[in-house]
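== Polypeptide entry ==
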Amino acid sequence: MAISLTNSAADRVRSYLDKRGNGVGLRLGVTQTGCSGYSYVINYADEINDSDIVFEDKGITVVVEPDALELIDGTEVDFVKNGLNEAFSFRNPNISGECGCGESFNV
């Protein structure tokens, strides 16, 4: 079981945590929503709960909610800039489909 980060994603998280002056890493989860069933939830982690699953990649702590792990196990998190837009993106080997807008997925 693992969640990995591209260099771009790790650099973005590191830069943002340094800028904000606190936090322990990146928190990933999912929520049931959207036209395909699930949507990623991404935040900066300020603490690690006893039930959290923790990974380290490229010097960044990645905190995953236990209920989400089976849906996102093996996912690579990237940070992409396209013109004026920038966002985290996900390469999840578990998905069987995505909605047309790319905001949600199903397994």
In short: The first helix runs from residue 7 to 20. The first strand starts at residue 4 and ends at 5. Residues 39 and 103 are 6 Å apart (CA to CA).
